Amino acid sequence: MKRQLSICILLLFAFSCALAQLHEHRTFSNSGITIEKVMPPTWGQSIATVIIVTDTRGAEVKKIKASIHTGYPFRVDVASLAPARYTIKVIVERANDSVRELQTYFLKTENCKWVALKLVPACELSPTPGIAHHGLHADKPVIYLYPQAIEDVTVKLNFKGTLTNTIPAYDSGWQVSATPAGVITNHADGKEYPYLFWEGTTDKDDWDMSTGFVISADSMRQFLLNVLPQIGLQPKECNEFIDYWLPRLQKNPYNLIHFAGREYEDMAPLVVTPAPDTMLRIFMLFTSVKKNHKAAPQQFAPFIRKGFTLVEWGGMDMDNKQLIRK
Hints:
Largest sheet: 8 strands, mixed
Number of strands: 20
Shape: globular
Radius of gyration: 22 Å
Strand content: 35-45%
Structural class: alpha+beta
């Protein structure tokens, strides 16, 4: 009798562990990690690092030395690791010989072959001083410019909110030159940029979320790979969108995703000189929902690039209200 009771207890414990692992898989599974606010702040600068992966007991299972560029993903091969939760440490060696250790975790699942680390430049996250109240944050809208020939372009953003960061510095507008390949040179500092970057916080919280897509964390990557080209992004733009947003989207078991149209353009109108022949502005809203949440699917008109083309993408986590700074 005692033996049967012991077996029952062991089976119940194993079942409980399996449920816990399933819940953790649904909640935390991802293939990308962003480690925020690392110095030096220059976008694209190479940083010497040591990457150490440890298991739940703290035992080291992988260690590599690598040079990571801020703002770009760096792939860590985890295919040989058993499915489990791991801690990943990134030891950053800065130019002044001081060392900073950044730490996060990832869940290795059966189909997870690599983890994408991205060190975000401090200048993309440093807020301006002063606090007004809470609002929603427009995260990393980036603007690509593709003229037909090398051309001087002025871009003005009339954002109905508070800008928290711009790269390069916005002042009263961006004065740049752009090539057909999308290389942007800022007139103020003479530096090259892959896009114009801005972020800001707004009072607007009445977005229409009646249409969209309910997507699980496990299906999120494939969903983005399918839908972004339908909307009009090219492979490079798709990859950069996914590298930035996938880790954040996969923090929720299920998301309702809606791509805003006129509402976004009214909140953040652009004035571009000379005027683009075609313009694509993608702004993804997302919020955590239950699995059985219903929404009417969105439909997208074909986007055909002709002449001078401007492309922009960004997004907003509807569950993450932040302090509006001024």
